[in-house]
Write a structure and sequence with these properties.
Largest sheet: 3 strands, antiparallel
Number of strands: 5
CATH architecture of the largest domain: Orthogonal Bundle
Oligomer: single chain
Structural class: alpha+beta
CATH class of the largest domain: Mainly Alpha
Length: 159
């Protein structure tokens, strides 16, 4: 699958796409093999993903429309990621609230596991999920980056 690495205000991001849409967004460059035949569909998804992320970081985009390849979603993890996609720009939910949105209100710890395996951060906005009491909580690339993204969206106090 084709991969492109883009510079962003939060550092390099690696986007991977297939014919159905974006498959992965990784923080930092990722090693990849040259793709001899990813097809124009995959490249179009990469191009749109890059453009939409540029607009997001510039404050001109509040919702992503690029196609996403959701084919790997299974079970509760898939339910959580699908529910997470409904959390709007500038709003946050707690792990417990997201568990309820996914139909399992007592599974807030499992929501944390699902967030840790989110293959499409930023576009599927796991940074919008807070710990109980609306505390910042964890984030794979670090809490400072989570706070930066929430401030960009206006959902975290500016100090």
């Amino acid at each position: 699958m084709p991969v492109t690495v883009v510079d962003s205000p939060i550092g390099p991001l690696s986007l991977t796409a297939g014919p159905a849409g974006l498959v992965r967004i990784a923080f930092g460059p990722v090693p990849h093999e040259p793709d001899p035949g990813g097809g124009t569909g995959a490249q179009a998804h990469l191009d749109q993903g890059v453009q939409e992320l540029d607009e997001y970081f510039a404050g001109r985009r509040t919702a992503f429309t690029v196609a996403l390849d959701r084919s790997a979603r299974r079970g509760f993890r898939g339910e959580v990621l699908t529910a997470l996609e409904t959390v709007p720009y500038g709003e946050t939910v707690t792990y417990g609230e997201l568990a309820g949105m996914a139909g399992r209100p007592l599974a807030s710890r499992a929501v944390g596991t699902a967030m840790a395996t989110n293959p499409l951060p930023l576009v599927v906005p796991c940074h919008r999920v807070l710990a109980a009491g609306h505390r910042l909580g964890g984030y794979g690339p670090g809490p400072a980056l989570k706070e930066q993204l929430l401030r960009l969206e206006g959902s975290w106090p500016v100090l």
